[in-house]
Amino acid sequence: MKMLWKDQIVSEFPGVERNVPLSELTSFRVGGAARFVLRPQSYEEIKRAVAFVKSFGVPFVLLGKGTNVLASDAGYDGVLIRFDAPMHAPIYDGVRVTVCGGTSLTQLARDTVKRGFMGLERLCGIPGTVGGACAMNAGAYGGEIGQILRRVRLLKNGTDAWTDVRDGDLGYRRSAFSFPDAIVLEAELELCADDGSAAETMRDCMEKRREKQPLDLPSAGSTFKRPEGYFAGALIEQCGLKGYSIGGAQVSQKHAGFIVNTGNATEADVSALIRFVQDTVKERTGVNLEPEVKRI
Ligand SMILES: Cc1cc2nc3c(=O)[nH]c(=O)nc-3n(C[C@H](O)[C@H](O)[C@H](O)COP(=O)(O)OP(=O)(O)OC[C@H]3O[C@@H](n4cnc5c(N)ncnc54)[C@H](O)[C@@H]3O)c2cc1C
Question: Is 31's C-beta closer than 6 angstroms to any atom of ligand 1?
Fold first, then answer.
């Protein structure tokens, strides 16, 4: 008799976890359970996992550290592949560094500065993975990973290959290297020699984060993309919404660009607040706010 995929996944991937609350896998700390969670330990295992779910036609989603996602209260009835740990240490070759997609971006930024390089110092403090940063073209304080990303090793349409980054592959908080189109297995970044300012810049950026961002409460960072010519936080504050709450979701008192979970928020609370903020800002200022967070 043919084995069901739910039985087979357990025999093929003995480490698979069942019914894991998405609130434990995402920085927003909301969401129901993911039916199966795989945490591959090697590139081969990621490829095997993707081939497995595709062969059975099972829904699947890829997550890094889950710091830019809003997970449904209904959970995820499929396979969640969690790629949030490095398969190997960064490999330095002159000013180039090749790094695993599961590496912490903040740890990498610190490591590069310690070794006398510049390029990542402004991105220190972004709490995701390098793969997640490539997918989102993460950036802060004038720096963006796209500025130094030269090549990516992608798992795409069943093939695993390095590809050069071309003009147009990355834009503001978007990239061609994002799940479900592709999985970033590794990235090659081009740094430059530190001119002596990297450590101080990194400290300043971290200080600004601590000063301005509600780091004591769960969130997914900036909830909305920056609308051209405006700042989302300033528009939201101007509409009197700072501190506005729906259930356990609140427009942060510290930074109106962040929606935070004050303790018992559900995805429904966060979604209702996102809609309310969008509607209010549109009505009062005419500006459309587009969510930056991805949904599961
Ligand atoms: C307190 C806080 C501060 C933040 N500050 C910033 C900031 O200053 N600037 C900024 O840009 N962002 C910021 N963020 C948002 C978030 O940290 C970034 O977007 C980060 O790059 C997401 O990485 P991740 O590993 O958590 O990705 P996830 O949230 O796990 O995933 C995000 C998206 O990327 C996809 N993805 C993840 N890994 C891969 C991969 N290897 N290959 C292909 N697709 C992949 C996922 O499928 C999903 O669609 C902040 C978040 C928090 C909570």
Answer: no
Catalytic residue from among 121, 186, 188, 292: 292
User: Which CATH number do you get for residue 238?
Assistant: 3.90.78.10
Q: Are 234 and 273 part of one and the same domain?
A: yes
Segment 192-227, tens digit of pLDDT:
999 999 999 999 999 999 999 999 999 999 999 999
Q: Any idea what the CATH number is for the domain that residue 31 is in? A: 3.30.43.10
* 66 CA to centre of ligand 1 in angstroms: 7
The answer, as to whether pTM is greater than 0.85, is yes
Is 199 near ligand 1, meaning CB less than 6 Å away?
no
**Alpha helices (H) in the chain, listed in sequence order:** 5-12, 43-56, 105-114, 130-136, 198-212, 232-238, 267-285
The amino acid present at 290, given as its one-letter code, is E
Q: Is the CB of 252 under 6 A from ligand 1?
A: no
